[in-house]
Specification:
heterodimer, A: D-Maltodextrin-Binding Protein, domain 2, 2 domains, two-stranded antiparallel sheet, 67% helix, 7% strand, B: alpha/beta, Rossmann fold
């Protein structure tokens, strides 16, 4: 036991003393924030670049019918063939794309083509098809010769906005699906990333000990199993330290941010009051600005209040549990792989059986975000190779307790099994040099005694 | 008394038998040579001795009882392929390895200080291994191996990678360790050092012990019955004295002295040869040629290969 402790201590200390650990600890929260916000920001961001589309409308039905936006303009041209305009387009500074609408479009809805050399925007084609669809539908309706069609359409037109409400024992509440999804996504993805990053770190460290041959000196003092366990746990403590630092830093940052926001809104309130006083004293009323600011503050505090209802402690505790479980399961397998190869590059063939379930877990997790109670989500959150990722993505939405506990139990049993198996592979593998090992041989090692 | 006995050890890796019924008795306080061609099974035997591997069959006796897991603390092992953590500081690393051998931090520090001073390498304490040369790293490893005062030491090719000065330093340290009561197993291909250092040897070839015993005895038993004679007088007369019981292998003249190598065939003896020669030439020296361990190694390994 004392030996394992010494090994854990070494593994832990050499890692947290590295500069990269310090950098990750400081930059981690920033990087996560960037990575989680960036895609969303990119998607919602309106393209600032002007896009101009030339339209050759052979049907003649859609001229000036496709709505334009601030950054999207259409120019309807005629007297030029599609093929010759394609050549123009190649060197054109003015046009980004060419839209060709065939005369047959009303009965063959796919007879419309968008040509471009550089893809202008992902939304462009859906914008165009929506516009054409509306136009064609309207035309088709008109052929029925219904009287007062415009009025009927006007009265039929309805915008549906589903208000989702979650029923719980505490009463009905406006749902926070988006926030839950973000939390689920972040939790599942972090587990995936941690397992991969730190599992690979365990593997590389095993390879390093093997190739530097120090392993033989160490296992003449300790059992190979102790060395493996010490390494796996040492790296785990490093991750837990890192996570704790991140949690503390994030909490500190958000407290600072909250203080900053409320401080700012306080000052605007004071301003508002003074302006109100001015209004009361009889001059012009101008309370517009402060009111807007107050609205903002309310929105922000609303966002913060969302988190009040989310069982943060429960999520964080389960996150740590599933991280540890998943890490121990995969980390020991990574250690076993490291022991059977001589160099990093040889790891490929053995990595596959590990990366596939991990990737699968990630894909199922994406699916789970929308279908967190489906049978697929259920089963993949029970299978230990995927459960750390999938179950973690389900937990924020609320999962029956028995499912979590069952999944946790299976995971514990599996990582104990995995560590045992990895230990058997490891102790044979680390002493083997210059030999390509096959799966068959590895299975044989499992049966070797001692 | 034997400090270590391996009795009828069998070890197989799958279909390959690495050790086949190998028995080795190691007397306490000796330097014991473990010899054999590459791939003979020496490293497997060494790993079984320090419990890195377990034998499939056979008994291991240490200090007159069965070998126990905690006996590793009484052993020191310097593997053939040396390695240290490249990025770790020398001092820290030595301390870590010493603690793994069961030393307290305090004891380890005291001993390390002593050895670093003795080898005049105090300034290396805060250096990383990657900053050291191979020979320097090996010095550190030697210290780590002997730091916990093991009574039983295994050195696998301890002189490889050292320059002559440091190789001599190592040799002296090994002799010193023996003088202080340690038993040392020396696995090496350097036959000169076997002749110089080893009291006993086992020669392993193709998973089996093919030669075992005290070095002096082995060399005596393998004597080729060849004598080196230097004499003054007429070489023709010398040759005429040699009858069918003797065979002249070589004769030459160096600076006025005659030199001859004579093999004595079974039916005769060295005394007979001498008495034949003495009336006719002036014999200035008469020496029996002892076989070198190198010759014995080659002879035994080749003949055992032929028998298989």
């Amino acid at each position: 036991m004392n030996k394992i402790f010494l090994i854990i201590k070494r593994e832990y200390l050499t890692r947290i003393r590295k500069k990269s650990f310090l950098i990750m600890s400081l930059l981690g929260p920033l990087i996560f924030a960037t990575f989680s916000i960036l895609p969303a920001w990119l998607m919602t961001r309106e393209s600032e670049e002007m896009i101009k589309v030339a339209v050759i409308d052979s049907s003649g039905e859609f001229i000036n019918k496709i709505p334009e936006t601030k950054t999207l303009k259409f120019e309807y041209i005629s007297g030029i063939s599609v093929n010759s305009f394609k050549k123009v387009l190649k060197n054109s500074q003015e046009f980004n794309a060419l839209l060709f609408i065939s005369p047959s479009i009303t009965y063959a809805p796919s007879h419309v083509w968008l040509y471009y050399y550089n893809q202008p925007n992902l939304n462009l084609s859906s914008h165009i098809s929506n516009a054409l669809k509306k136009e064609i539908e309207a035309k088709k309706l008109q052929t029925f010769n219904i009287e007062n069609l415009d009025k009927i359409m006007e009265s039929v037109k309805t915008d549906v906005a589903v208000q989702s409400v979650k029923i719980s024992e505490k009463g009905e509440k406006a749902s926070k699906t988006e926030i839950l999804m973000i939390i689920s996504y972040a939790a599942g993805f972090l587990i995936y990333m941690f397992i991969f990053m730190f599992g690979a770190q365990v593997m590389r460290s095993v390879i390093e000990e093997k190739t530097s041959r120090i392993v033989e000196i160490i296992i003449s003092s300790v059992k190979p199993f102790q060395l493996m366990i010490g390494k796996v746990f040492g790296v785990m403590l490093v991750v837990l330290t890192q996570i704790s630092i991140w949690i503390v830093m994030t909490m500190a940052l958000s407290t600072v941010a909250q203080n900053f926001i409320s401080h700012k809104s306080n000052s605007t309130k004071i301003e508002a009051t003074s302006q109100n006083i001015m209004t009361q004293s009889g001059t012009i009323a101008a309370p517009q600005n402060p009111a807007m600011n107050q609205g903002n503050t309310e929105a922000i505090s609303e966002i913060f209040s969302y988190f009040d209802d989310i069982p943060v402690v429960q999520i964080v505790s389960w996150f740590i549990f599933f991280f540890i479980g998943g890490y121990l399961l995969y980390g020991s397998l990574f250690a076993a792989i490291g022991s059977v190869v001589d160099t990093d590059t040889d790891t490929q063939q053995f990595m596959l059986p590990i990366t596939i379930p991990l990737m699968l877990g990630l894909f199922v997790m994406f699916y789970t975000l929308n279908n967190y109670n489906s049978p697929v989500a259920f089963w993949f959150s029970m299978i230990p190779l995927t459960s750390p990722i999938v179950m973690m993505a389900r937990i924020p939405f609320g999962v029956p307790a028995w499912q979590i506990w069952l999944s946790a139990f299976i995971l514990i049993a599996s990582f104990i099994g995995a560590i045992w198996m990895a230990g058997k592979i490891y102790r044979t593998g680390i002493l083997l040099y210059g030999k390509k090992v096959s799966y068959k041989e590895i299975f044989k090692w499992l049966t070797y005694k001692n | 008394m034997n400090i270590f006995e391996a009795r009828n050890i069998v070890k197989a890796y799958g279909d390959f038998i690495a050790l086949n019924d190998v028995s080795v008795n190691i007397p306490e306080g000796c330097i014991y040579g473990l010899l054999g061609p590459n791939g003979a099974g020496k490293t497997t035997l060494i790993r079984i001795m320090n419990q890195i591997l377990a034998p499939d069959q056979g008994e291991l006796i240490f200090q007159n009882r069965n070998l126990r897991p905690d006996d590793v603390y009484k052993m020191g092992y310097l593997p053939e392929e040396r390695g240290l953590y490249k990025k770790m500081k020398i001092g820290e690393q030595a301390l870590y390895l010493a603690q793994l051998k069961g030393m307290s931090k305090h004891d380890a520090l005291v001993k390390l200080k002593y050895w670093f001073e003795r080898f005049e390498i105090q300034s290396w304490w805060n250096k990383k291994v990657e900053e050291l040369s191979k020979g320097m790293a090996q010095k550190v490893q030697f210290i780590v191996t002997i730091l916990h005062d093991p009574k039983f030491l295994i050195f696998d090719e301890p002189f490889s990678g050292f320059d002559p000065i440091n190789a001599t330093l190592m040799r002296d340290e090994i002799i010193n360790l023996k003088a202080n009561g340690a038993t040392i197993i020396l696995s090496t291909h350097n036959m000169a050092s076997v002749e110089e250092l080893c009291d006993n040897i086992s020669l392993i070839n193709k998973s089996k012990v093919v030669l075992q015993g005290e070095v002096s005895e082995i060399r005596n038993q393998n004597k080729p019955d060849i004598f080196e004679i230097t004499f003054a007088g007429n070489p023709q007369t010398f040759q005429q004295q040699l009858n069918s019981k003797f065979e002249l292998l070589e004769q030459k003249e160096i600076k006025g002295l005659h030199y001859a190598r004579v093999k004595i065939l079974h039916t005769s003896s060295d005394n007979e040869l001498l008495s034949l020669l003495l009336p006719h030439v002036h014999v200035t020296s008469f020496n029996e040629v002892l076989p070198s361990m190198n010759d014995i190694f080659i002879k035994v390994v080749e003949s055992s290969n032929l028998n298989n």
